Amino acid sequence: MAGRTLIFTGPPGSGKGTQAAHMRDRLGFVPLSSGDTLRAEIKAGSDIGKQAAQYVQAGTLVPDDIITGVMLAAVSRQPTSAGVILDGFPRTVGQAEALDDGLAAAGRKVDAVIDFRIDDGLIVERIVNRRICKNCGATYNIRFCPPKVANVCDRCGGELMQRVDDREDVIRTRLATYREQTTPLIEFYDRRGLLRSVDASREAPAVESDVVALIEALG
Ligand SMILES: [Zn+2]
């Protein structure tokens, strides 16, 4: 039997990337996040990677067909027996339709879409409290995982800072874009009976058990 092809959807900060990595460790899935895959393809210098690099270097949005090409290239490099998890792709209905065609050519189909549901307010709370050590890159959360001394790294004594991307206004804008793009996508998969969802507002181990149960229920 061909390996499962799953899609993880959810806003930035929902923990879906972490869960995709756990499914690699627990169930042998190959996680393919759109950002990492794009960077890897550019670095490898493949034809599609070269096309994508032109947009990235120019600082413009990489078009739908190129992102789709990059993700399909990465999927088709996996043996058909391997399960894959697409993380952060597709983002639009157009990409989802192109994905279907490409997967069919590779002898695969989308088996399920797992949507990581969480309120925007909770994501904002998780991210705005994030601090990173300027020196060693260790991450803290001043609410849930604070350093022993305020603003000082436990590990190296370095000063902690907030990343520009972690400011509330930046996060709110990113979330609004995400909801606008993906609401039609979620409906698209729901109509086809492929949509599953997990409550991503809970602690990671509880979310992980639900994800495993959903995957095992696919048979
Ligand atoms: Zn440090």
Task: Sum up the structure in keywords.
globular; five-stranded parallel beta sheet; 219 residues; single chain; alpha/beta; three-stranded antiparallel beta sheet; Rossmann fold; 2 domains
How would you characterize this protein structure?
The protein has helices spanning 16-27, 34-44, 47-58, 64-76, 93-105, 120-128, 168-191, 204-216, and strands spanning 5-9, 30-33, 84-87, 112-117, 130-133, 139-141, 160-161, 195-199. With 219 residues, it is an alpha/beta fold. The strands form 2 sheets. Strands 2-3-1-4-8 form a 5-stranded parallel sheet, with helices on both faces. β5 (130-133) and β6 (139-141) form a beta hairpin. The longest helix is centred in the last third of the chain and has 24 residues, at 168-191. The model has no long low-confidence stretch (mean pLDDT 92). Bound molecules: zinc ion. Zinc ion binds next to loops.
Task: Give the helix/strand layout.
Layout (H helix, E strand, L loop, with lengths): L4 E5 L6 H12 L2 E4 H11 L2 H12 L5 H13 L7 E4 L5 H13 L6 E6 L2 H9 L1 E4 L5 E3 L18 E2 L6 H24 L3 E5 L4 H13 L3
Parallel strand pairs: 1-3, 1-4, 2-3, 4-8
Antiparallel strand pairs: 5-6, 5-7
Helix pairs in contact: 1-8, 2-3, 2-4, 3-4, 4-5, 6-7
Zinc ion (ZN) binds next to loops.
How would you summarize this macromolecular structure in one to three sentences?
By secondary structure, this protein is α/β, with parallel strands linked by helices. Helices cover 49% and strands 15% of the residues.
